[in-house]
Specification:
This protein has 36 helices and 11 strands. By secondary structure, it is of the alpha+beta class.
Length: 796
């Protein structure tokens, strides 16, 4: 070590520590130091910052001098990506800037990789880190919002290290951005309100981030913040043992400086914990420091401070700060009573006394920016009139006419405040219902272990009791439960909820309200699954008529109903009509001010591909399928129902192109994906399972065909006990074809008779199913000219 360099570096460091943090880099550059001196000063400054941020960062650090041998480095390539340089490192992974390297197109991304060996040689710890990384990847795939970083791809390196490909946000952390751009108080409040929007989007998917802090919010050059690093996020649902998952702090499970009291106490978390973390971030943005000084404290002392100590008010903190006098003045000038109260409510020790949601916090911040009454402030006529006067200074200076206007506006403000309070109360009421629903699946609360799906079903019986006085709230909750039941193929239960939704929405909102129309469209989807074709057509037609009549044409609801109606005609085999309606859906979706999501567009493209195949245009079908599959693979790198549907469609196309082996491969992947997505019996599993058996027949793989054919018939028999469906008839006919291959003609005859009865008992005269039955019956009758099988007699 060169003593002269070390001495000079320490001298410069002492001077540099007196410079505001946001100006230190520029100050160093202005000194025109020798490269080795500048490098040593920056190194010492980094060490000093780490000491000052003790417990603001995760509780563990990498093992000294250790680096995973399997972790890629800059210049490495895997998949379609080449690593350029490391741009960040955290507890769970290393983040690289990377670029597309397969020549298809140019794109820069951020790639996050697990580095479990750096943190602990213990295999259990490594496995947990890997699980958390996979959790982040799965969660991000579900989230799509302008203020949440998007997932683009994922996989594993050749050495087995999992990686996540995200959009690269060329920006700074939230606090660095505010300091670098010298944002005033209003601009900082506006930024945090957008962060609340992103967090609320996660909460709508029942995801709690659990580690919100400025370093996990990146702000781009357009002043758009993006929430990142869902590495320790959790779904608000039960774990494998059936209980609500509590925060663990074995390593890096939270950042104490931003943790809520319940998080510090290791209690089960709700969305209120994220609201608290947002409050800490808001406090730091406005006051320049966090509400608690935790440096040098033990974990137990940190918990005591977080749980039992009230932070000083914003203005007291600013007044006592070591900020530059001019900065202290503009901060103090921008912080009024409303902001003080908003921060205090967000940081309340009792979760029930905080804002009911991140959205409620964001809305209150926007009310403050607009000069309107905020929910955090006690109501009072003087307060509301004062707000009005400040928003309308010129009008307030007028005489009697202005006074009348003020009084009128005061009445409006009273009404607005009442509406706002009602909205907050509604949100709290719904949140309580949600928490109770989740607790029902906790064996420690309910006394028995049930799944979240069962808890949802049981909740349906409580809607009348909990929301009988508020049909407007009951409509949304009942609709969500009905859609959940429909997705899980609990058709009878879904029918009850969706019919009630339609009736209550019509009474509460009117016949042409979007909530009423979406209930009609969902009922149509239900009748489609039940094979009740006439009702399905009538309901879709009714929904479209109401959309046109109420002036809602060319909106998102219009696009969705058209898409579902087109899919219905695909099922009927009316491909020309389906293509016409689906093209309308695509055009409406593309013309929206905010176009439909990529996944929704991909669904329509895939359906158009199916129509093109049915019309014999196989090349166009292939092109449309490829477009849709690319979108689904990007959105769902681990697979899922939408991608499985696409693989099933591609299998049918491959079969039409006389590519049976490729078709079989598509179907095997589709069935495996669907069985992962749907735990029990479901049409989304039954259909590809039946198709897989038929494809095995074509390849003369009798054993494989028999295996899947028998499974399909057994599943269909369990599913269609009350009302029958042509899916059941198709499964029976497929197994009959297998029995012909096995020369078990008597069994084939029995199965064909059951297939014909099943099709007759269904409410859909499905022509393709009837043609399939007739074709297999002809083969049976031709193969046994000396025998008269019942199926042949039935034909006559």
């Amino acid at each position: 070590m060169d003593i002269s360099i070390e001495t000079e570096s320490i001298r410069l460091l002492e001077t540099l520590l007196g410079v505001p943090a946001s100006e230190r880099s520029a100050w160093l550059d202005d000194q025109r130091l020798a490269a080795n001196v500048a490098a040593r000063v920056r190194e010492l400054l980094g060490a000093e910052d780490m000491l000052g941020m003790f417990l603001a960062e995760p509780l563990v650090a990498p093992l000294p001098g250790h680096r995973s041998a399997s972790l890629p480095i800059a210049g490495d390539r895997f998949g379609a990506w080449r690593l350029l340089r490391e741009i960040g490192a955290g507890t769970m992974g290393v983040v690289f800037l990377a670029e597309r390297a397969d020549g298809r197109y140019e794109q820069q991304v951020a790639i996050k990789l697990v580095r479990s060996l750096e943190w602990s040689p213990d295999s259990t710890t490594q496995a947990d880190l890997m699980r958390r990384f996979d959790n982040e990847r799965r969660l991000l795939a579900r989230l799509e919002h302008p203020n949440i970083v998007r997932i683009l791809d994922g996989g594993s390196t050749p050495s087995g290290t999992p990686y996540l490909v995200m959009e690269h946000v060329a920006g700074r952390s939230l606090t660095d951005y505010c300091c670098a751009n010298r944002l005033d108080v209003a601009a900082r409040v506006k930024l945090l309100a957008k962060v609340c929007d992103g967090v609320q989007a996660a909460h709508r998917h029942l995801i709690v981030h659990r580690d919100l802090k400025p370093q996990n919010v990146l702000v781009d050059d357009n002043a758009e913040p993006r929430v990142v690093d869902f590495g320790i996020a959790r779904l608000l649902e039960t774990d494998e043992a059936g209980s609500v998952v509590a925060t663990r702090t074995a390593y890096a499970a939270m950042t104490p400086a931003y943790a809520s009291p319940e998080q510090a106490r290791h209690e089960p978390l709700t969305t209120a914990s994220d609201v608290y973390s947002l409050g800490v971030m808001l406090y730091e943005l406005l006051a320049g420091v966090r509400p608690y000084a935790l440096a040098g404290l033990s974990p137990a002392e940190c918990e005591r401070v977080i749980c039992a100590t009230e932070p000083p008010s914003l203005r007291k903190t600013v007044a006592a700060s070591a900020l530059d006098p001019s900065e202290r003045r503009w901060r103090a000038a921008g912080i009024g009573n409303d902001l003080e109260r908003i921060v205090a409510r967000a940081l309340h020790k009792d979760p029930e006394r905080r804002y009911g949601s991140a959205q409620a916090l964001g809305d209150d911040l926007r009310r403050h920016l607009e000069g309107r009454p905020v929910l955090a402030h006690p109501d009072g006529i003087g307060y509301r009139l004062g707000k009005f006067v400040r928003r309308n200074r010129l009008g307030s200076a007028a005489s009697a006419l202005a006074l009348i206007a003020i009084l009128v506006a005061g009445g409006i403000a009273l009404w607005q405040s009442s509406q706002a309070r009602r909205a907050a109360a509604d949100m709290a009421r719904i949140n309580t219902f949600l928490v109770d629903l989740l607790s029902a699946s906790n064996p420690y609360e309910s006394g028995t272990e049930i799944t979240l799906a069962h808890a949802l079903d049981n909740a349906a019986g409580e809607i009348d009791e909990r929301f009988g006085d508020r049909p407007d709230l009951a409509v949304d909750i009942r609709y969500a439960l009905g859609k959940s039941m429909l997705a899980r193929y609990r058709l009878d239960a879904a029918g009850i909820q969706l019919q009630r939704t339609l009736e209550e929405s019509t009474r509460a909102f009117g016949a042409d309200d979007p909530r009423t129309i979406r209930a009609i469209a969902s009922l149509a989807s239900l009748r489609k699954e039940q094979g009740r074709d006439a009702e399905t057509t009538a309901l879709y037609t009714d929904a479209l008529t109401r959309i046109q009549r109420s002036g809602q044409a060319n909106g998102a609801l219009h696009a969705n109903v058209l898409n579902d109606f087109g899919v219905f005609y695909l099922i009927l085999g009316e491909y020309a009509r389906a293509q016409e309606i689906l093209q309308q859906a695509l055009a409406v979706g593309d013309s929206l001010p905010v176009p439909v999501s990529a996944q929704e567009r991909a669904q329509t493209l895939g359906s158009l591909g199916q129509a093109a195949r049915g019309l014999g245009d196989l090349d166009r079908a292939e092109a449309l399928y490829q477009q849709a599959q690319t979108i689904f693979e990007t959105a769902y790198p681990d697979g899922g129902p939408y991608l499985a549907i696409m693989l099933n469609s591609r299998a049918v196309l491959a079969r039409a192109r006389k590519e049976p082996e490729q078709a079989l491969g598509f179907l095997e992947r589709a069935v495996a994906m669907h069985r992962r997505s749907f735990e029990g019996d479901h049409a989304m599993v039954l259909v590809p399972m039946t198709n897989l058996a038929r494809q095995a027949i074509e390849l003369d793989r009798t054993s494989l065909a028999a295996d899947w054919g028998e499974k399909a018939v057994a599943m269909a028999a369990r599913m269609y006990t009350k009302t029958d469906h042509f899916y059941h008839a198709q499964a029976l006919t497929t197994l009959a074809e297998v029995r012909l291959m096995q020369e078990r003609d008597a069994d084939a005859s029995d199965l064909l008779i059951r297939a014909q009865q099943s099709l007759g008992n269904s409410e859909s005269a499905h022509a393709p199913s009837q043609k399939y039955i007739d074709r297999i019956r002809e083969r049976l009758c031709a193969s046994s000219p000396q025998a008269t099988w019942p199926a042949c007699e039935a034909r006559g």
